[in-house]
Amino acid sequence: MRRSSADTKAVILAAARERFAADGYEKATIRSIAGDAGIDPAMVMRYFGNKEKLFAAAAHIDLKFPDFSAVPRDQIGARLVGHFLGLWEHNEALQVLLRTGVTNEAAAERMRDIFATQLAPVIATLTGPDQAPIRAGLAASQILGLALARYILKFPPIVAMSRDDLIHWTAPTIQHYLCD
């Protein structure tokens, strides 16, 4: 039974997501991903060109920001932290991207792209366009630092904290960056 081009790409991407999550970027290979997908490695190269492009496609992440216009201004920091905690807890691709982003330029570029195309525009609606890049960068540094400590490095005190405690401790900083 032959698959359509779209079906083949979907199978490759699913296998790539699983392999990158299990092995990380550096250890995952085109050959292992193709094997997981049950196809020839040349097909992976045909559809994606190289490992970096495959990773970028597999790491496509929609942050699905809520509409903050209805959120009381003094609760935006807490809502944003809560939103990101939910993403980190339920989206393994974000963890893979963070883990590999510190050592791989393609992954780091993907993180920067997500920052520029998804986070910064949301922040611009809260702060205006002039200060949005700086404020978004500061907010991202806090969110990424929290994610690194909790989900990647697994610092025991941070891992042990409840979601409510994490929001309680980090929301004021995010609130300051976005609304002060």
Distance between the termini: 60 Å
Low-confidence stretches: none
Radius of gyration: 18 Å
How many strand elements?
A: 0
Order of helices and strands: HHHHHHHHHH
Strand content: under 5%
Which structural class do you get from the secondary structure elements?
A: mainly alpha
Shape: elongated
Quick check: average pLDDT? 90
The DSSP helix count reads 10
The helix content, as a percent range, equals: over 70%
What characterizes the major β-sheet? none
Question: Quick gist of this model?
Answer:
The protein has helices at residues 5-27, 30-37, 41-48, 51-58, 76-90, 92-101, 105-127, 132-152, 156-160, 163-179. The chain is mostly helical and 180 residues long.
What characteristics describe this protein?
10 helices; single chain; 0% strand; mainly alpha
How would you characterize the overall build of this protein?
This protein has 180 residues and is an all-alpha fold. Helices cover 77% and strands 0% of the residues. It has helices spanning 5-27, 30-37, 41-48, 51-58, 76-90, 92-101, 105-127, 132-152, 156-160, 163-179. The longest helix has 23 residues, at 5-27. The mean pLDDT is 90.
